[in-house]
User: What shape does this take?
Amino acid sequence: MKIGIYGYGNLGRGVELAIRQNADMELAGVFTRRDPATVKTITGAPVYAAADVNRFENEIDVMIICGGSASDLPEMTPALAKHFNVIDSFDTHARIPEHFANVDAAAAETGHTALISAGWDPGLFSLARLLMNSVLPDGKDYTFWGRGVSQGHSDAIRRIPGVKDARQYTVPVEDALRRVRNGENPELTTRQKHTRECYVVAEEGADKALIEKQIKEMPNYFADYDTTVTFITEEEMKRDHAELPHGGQVIRGGTTGKDGSHRHVMEFSLKLDSNPEFTASVLAACARAINRMHSRGMNGCKTIFDIAPADLSPMDPADIRKKLL
Amino acid sequence: MKIGIYGYGNLGRGVELAIRQNADMELAGVFTRRDPATVKTITGAPVYAAADVNRFENEIDVMIICGGSASDLPEMTPALAKHFNVIDSFDTHARIPEHFANVDAAAAETGHTALISAGWDPGLFSLARLLMNSVLPDGKDYTFWGRGVSQGHSDAIRRIPGVKDARQYTVPVEDALRRVRNGENPELTTRQKHTRECYVVAEEGADKALIEKQIKEMPNYFADYDTTVTFITEEEMKRDHAELPHGGQVIRGGTTGKDGSHRHVMEFSLKLDSNPEFTASVLAACARAINRMHSRGMNGCKTIFDIAPADLSPMDPADIRKKLL
Assistant: This one.
């Protein structure tokens, strides 16, 4: 199957590398809004101008769209779904129903198959939540994120005057995790679930106390959390914070039995050295499924909840049953 | 939807209780090979003779078959699949391809839908293995079981002369778990992955040293493991070992990136107070999916790999996207 990559940042590069790990996939090309002549791919895959993408309608089985959720994907995914089978990792939770409707209309109209909100959250974590809720109807679930870099929170710190660079780690509170894993199903406030660690490079002469205060009091981003701020040098930032690790866990505690006294705890967890490369790996597996679903005439917009798991695998169904069941 | 339970032991009773937790399900009846007059259900559901089951062909949407894998299910599931949509928890790994073929032939011939090998392993753990292998093609996965009661190993000890009762716990080796969770992808022997703890009630005057030796040297069951044997009283057995807890984890460590240097660890784990009740809860959710797949004309034998996750949930697809994605 032939894959296209639309948008070539961290995620796009991750998809390029993920395709290399899947023998049944081939990278047909990378599409960029920059001047293609200035973009060099890791594997030597050809680079084309985003404006020319529709010329490749018949040469690409699935287009993986690697744009941002804020402004790119709401436009790109419906537009491209008119010409291609598409996948995105749209993660603005509140706007998913609207995005789904737009993409569904575009894809259904032209007989294409689309998948939105793929990745790990939304994505694998959503799937874990659905499975756990279906199996244990009487219970409560929790999602913890981290320890990992939140790019949105890092960006928010960088917008403060006097800040040269910043990296923010979201960290689950160990005691909360322990209680949830223990099946206690506690009520937890925002502050009790995660802490936020900020590493900041300040401009020369900047008022560090003021920067720290501005971070800690920032509404939505930091005010509801226990936040620590550590000032470091540019060299330390480069040396110790160049990677984009992330992870987290979905945990559900539930009960069964005659008097509901039997407790069960289900957990799905991820520990990732590279958030964009892992997300890209999920997108690659999903591309396989979308291609198969399209070949069966299952058109319109889908989510990970609609994918029969066997469709994610390169293995033959009989082989899957024999080796993995 | 109307559910039937065929076989009324620990698992059948668990299914009866699980149905009570799902508002869209109703228990049409329990079928037993014993004299129905001698069987009293927990919820007061009617009990019928197994021999009369085919009279209920038009009154049951899905029959959940709660028999043993050794001799019951290979006969029961194909026979019942000729008259009902069916689900079983067949777990004799080596015979899955053969069982699948038999059930598929029976179900397809009569336009029924069947699901085999549902539960947690095979079942949710199989699904975890498939997802993890699909997302991280370059890696290695591990399944650990326990701490939990293995009924097969407990039975094996009970067959030793001089043993009145026995309970065997399978326990993962902490250091092996730690290394796997750390992404080290170690090579592990059978002995390095699990230990076996045996609690034994001996007959009066029995040779305990001989019993211990016979347990520890038993091929397949114990010889390849570090096994501990503790003799206890009948009262202690009743007081401390009456429950059937179990659990375990599927873990895959894999790599991505330009030079494969980014490591990722995915883990799915279960900690269960009652193995049969949790297995039953999985079967109930699967019954919903099989009923829906049947209504769409998807006949023949299926496995958990063929179920689109949304079909496991009582929630409406738009609601699932809004609340769980």
Summary: The first strand of chain A starts at residue 2 and ends at 6. Chain A has a mean pLDDT of 97.
